[in-house]
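Intended use. Records like the one below are meant for learning the mapping from a protein sequence to its folded structure. Do not use them to infer anything beyond what is encoded.
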Amino acid sequence: MAMAMANPAPLATFCSQPRTLTPCNSLRGFGVIAHSRALALTATPVCSFRLRVRASKGSSPPPYPLSEVFPYVAAEWRTIAKGWACAAVAVYCLSRAVPAAGRLPRVLAAGVGGSAEGQIPRGVVTVAALASAHAAAAYVQQALLWEAALRVVWRLREHAFERVLARDLAFFDGREGMAAGDIAHRITDEADDVADALYSVLNTIVPTSLQLIAMGTQMVAINLQLSLVAAMVIPCMCIVIANLGERLRQISKKAHLSLAMLAAYLNDVLPSILTVKVNNGEHKEILRFHELGFGELKNNLDKKNMKALIPQAVRTTYIVGLVVLCAGSIAVSGTTFDAEGFLSFLTALALFVEPIQDLGKAYNEYKQGEPALERIFDLTRFIPQVRDKPSALHLKSVMGDIKFQDVTFRYAAGMPPVADGVNLHIRPGETVAIVGPSGGGKTTIAKLLLRLYHPQTGYIVLDNHDIQDIQLQCLRTHIAFVSQDATPWEILI
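Structure written out for the chain above:
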């Protein structure tokens, strides 16, 4: 690790080779050696890395996910409005096709004997034209609403990534930190689940409502009594959908967490393959992967089984209830249909049931995507501890005079201090080496100077300015940092 003040003036630097070693102050009780500007540190215990996938913590419940995602959805209102307009066209075509479908047998029978040879009956052409128009409008509707949903997720990903970069360093490498694999899984895979959920909601709210109204109107016009009987089954379906949907949400949350743990584990173990091999850890890691993979398999199977069960349960509830109620109603009232009216009613009923089932599917898709949405927004709900003051200074140039004055720092409450009452003065133009074994606190000193962390006590001064009074961007612009670890950016190679 090496650092330097980026300024034409004489530089204060951290280099790797000391010149003279003499006892001085203490950093967490370990000897700091300084004379002719060299420091040596002894090691502190290094905690082994643990897989970290955790849920958010807070004293108050987080906002409802839909309220947080609404601004992103509202930004795509033009595309959504176009999609819903196409939905209105598709529903209009269906409403016109219902009576035409009821007349179709009569038209076909009349066409066989009354039409000229080779001439297609007009009613058949009408039904075919309405079906084609409905298919075209439905396709454009779905394409536009998919575009809106994917654009919302694109904006959401950008916002989440921006907020992740604004997180304090402790979020990534502290005891309560989050694994990089878990973060990547939330922004990529779980965001795709959010897109599916948003599309289902957008494709259901207006299109389903329009189709329910249109088909309900057709059914009432054909037979009011049976229409009321059919409507009585809807509350039963809603109860089934709500109960199974909540169960699906809980199962989906477990599935998301298990997949996140698997992704985080792979993200940790693969870059450490050298350590695994030299310590003969292959068998141990295979067993650990088997445990995580089997847990993900079980939770994912539970989710898929529940998704397969819900539509069948909804459909069965509606059909059984409708058959019982209709049979009882017809038996009591003696209601009769002519063939044309009966076929029209059945057509309208089928098209009335379809959006109810779609509503159930959309609700379940949302319940499946809700945990993913919560986990993405969990990345954005924070107030950074290291941030600029309203009156923070902007320094155009610095001389490089650095002072640590009685600085004490620990990474977490309950842990021993890494730096304990450190006093250090680096004058402009001096070259200072801080030497010692791994875990001695060398990098911690650099992190404190860069304001990646704030000390619990004491303060650090740059050119007679407390660094907490200097703008973060300005401070880090004037300090060059060369890490001891090479970090390849594979996507740029």
